[in-house]
TrEMBL record:
InterPro entries: MoaB/Mog-like_dom_sf, MoaB/Mog_dom, MoeA-like, MoeA_C_domain_IV_sf, MoeA_linker/N, MoeA_linker/N_sf. Pfam families: MoCF_biosynth, MoeA_N. SUPFAM superfamilies: MoeA N-terminal region -like (SSF63882), Molybdenum cofactor biosynthesis proteins (SSF53218). It comes from Megamonas funiformis YIT 11815. It catalyses: adenylyl-molybdopterin + molybdate = Mo-molybdopterin + AMP + H(+). Pathway: Cofactor biosynthesis; molybdopterin biosynthesis. Belongs to the MoeA family. Signal peptide: none annotated. The keyword Transferase applies. Keywords: Magnesium, Metal-binding, Molybdenum, Molybdenum cofactor biosynthesis, Transferase. This is Molybdopterin molybdenumtransferase. Its EC number is 2.10.1.1. Catalyzes the insertion of molybdate into adenylated molybdopterin with the concomitant release of AMP.
Length: 407
């Protein structure tokens, strides 16, 4: 073990700048796959999907009624006492074909049968009234889903109507996660020695990957050994589109991750100008993007919430989403450090028709308390202060209804 002098280097982006930087820097190698309609929802279409059939193929009725020939109404409502079904009129049901020569539908509500004899109460206004002509529901070659559009549940039905059986979509990216640290033991272990910590970030990531639609390979815990880390990175670069390497990113005697990425790859961001999650980094190794994530679960969580999410949205050609915001009155004083913005984790609640925010120090409470309490962020620029009573914009990580009437 040796003392490592801390040298601040490189670009230290804020949270938003880091998202932007990642998206600009990553040259995504996307894969595609063909899925059937059972598996199409929420996938992103790789191309414009055009209808293979038109609907309807023949004129159909828009409503339940009777089909008539408009010409019979040129002088007003004719005497229909002797009209016969199948001759002067037919029954026309919603969505069913109205065959020639019938060209107009009269609503069944505007028709009576008195002693079996037809009586029409309202003259059709126009020829073709209440009829959907061919192609009026799905047009010839109509685009049903656009390229890079996320397919919704109604669109899956639309695709089926358009004669589509399968769609080419962007395949889930492959993410490799490399947990590092001599002090770690797997969360699957039944008991663990007193000097060990439980490796849990892989499971948090596994859950985030489910939400973000990525396939995850979790590597075994890699000891703090440059050769072993290099081996793992090499293997990860062969199987994954995006590599996440965890911990060993700070100033400790065993924090080798960035030294290694610097000599064996290229480090573009060593650390952020934003806390928590300051020790998030971005590198390239064997042409693969490597997102470095801080070891402590809270820093790791924020990196997954912000940076991994941005990467995933860009991978799927989706716009970057932003959190819903709410104006809050702060119930605390706080000054952000001079060298980094601070993404404050706060408890937002409603009192006397106003939203308030209480600060939660992630390093001062158990993780369970933090996760129970914090429901939003206040992003505070470096060196700036907040004082009790200030009104600011906060971001919500829960739905707005969750912050109504709770303390
Ligand atoms: N002198 C300084 N010390 C530290 C600073 C600093 O600026 N100056 N920053 C602190 C901050 S903030 C963070 S965040 C951490 C970053 O640490 P590392 O990313 O280098 O992580 P380690 O030191 O290896 O481990 C820290 C902590 O996290 C636990 N850990 C690691 N991996 C996992 C995992 N996969 N699952 C669960 N927990 C994990 C590890 O056991 C340690 O407890 O540095 C601070 N120090
Ligand atoms: O980077 Mo650390 O995650 O600020 O807590």
């Amino acid at each position: 073990m040796a003392y490592r002098e801390y040298v601040e280097k490189g670009y230290m982006p804020s949270r938003e700048m880091m998202k932007k930087f990642l998206i600009e820097q990553i040259d995504f190698k996307r894969n595609f796959e063909v899925v059937d309609l059972y598996n199409a929802v929420d996938k992103v279409s790789a191309e414009d999907v055009k209808a293979k059939v038109i609907l309807p193929k023949l004129p159909v009725s828009k409503m339940d009624g009777i089909g008539v020939c408009f010409a019979d109404f040129k002088d007003g409502i004719p005497d229909t006492e002797n009209w016969q079904e199948g001759k002067e009129y037919i029954f026309a049901n919603t969505g069913c074909v109205v065959p020639e020569p019938y060209d107009t539908v009269i609503l069944i509500e505007d028709v009576r049968f008195i002693d079996g004899k037809l009586k029409i109460l309202a003259k059709p206004e126009t020829k073709g009234q209440l009829i959907d002509p061919p192609g009026s529901l799905i047009g010839k070659d109509e685009v049903l889903v656009n390229k890079y559009e996320k397919i919704t549940a109604p669109q899956v039905g639309l695709l089926a109507s358009g004669g589509i059986k399968e769609v080419k979509v962007i395949a889930r990216p492959k993410i490799a996660f490399i947990p590092t640290g001599d002090e770690l033991v797997s969360w699957q272990s039944e008991d663990y020695p007193v000097d060990k910590n439980i490796e849990s970030n892989s499971m948090m990531l596994s859950a985030f990957c489910k939400q973000y639609q990525a396939d995850l390979t979790i590597f075994p815990i890699i000891p703090d050994d440059k050769e072993k880390i290099k081996e793992a990175l090499t293997k990860a670069s062969e199987i994954a589109d995006i590599i996440l390497i965890n911990a060993g990113s700070s100033k400790g005697t065993k924090d080798f991750t960035l030294d290694l990425l610097e000599t064996e790859g290229e480090v573009l961001v060593y650390e952020l100008g934003c806390r928590p999650g300051k020790h998030s980094s971005f590198s390239k190794f064997n042409q693969k993007p490597v997102l470095g994530i801080a070891g402590p679960p809270n820093g790791a969580e924020l990196a997954m919430r912000f940076y991994l999410k941005a990467i995933m949205q860009a991978y799927y050609h989706q716009k970057l989403s932003s959190l819903e915001t709410v104006n809050v009155t702060v119930d605390f004083d706080f000054t952000a450090p001079k060298n980094a913005d601070f993404c404050l984790q706060v408890h937002i609640f409603k009192q006397d028709d106003k939203y308030h925010a209480q600060i939660i120090n992630p390093k001062g409470v158990t993780r369970a308390t933090l996760l129970q309490k914090y429901n939003g962020f206040i992003y505070q620029l470096k060196g700036t202060s907040l004082n009790v009573g200030d009104e600011v914009t906060a971001e919500l990580i829960v739905e707005r209804k969750e912050i109504e009437n709770q303390n």
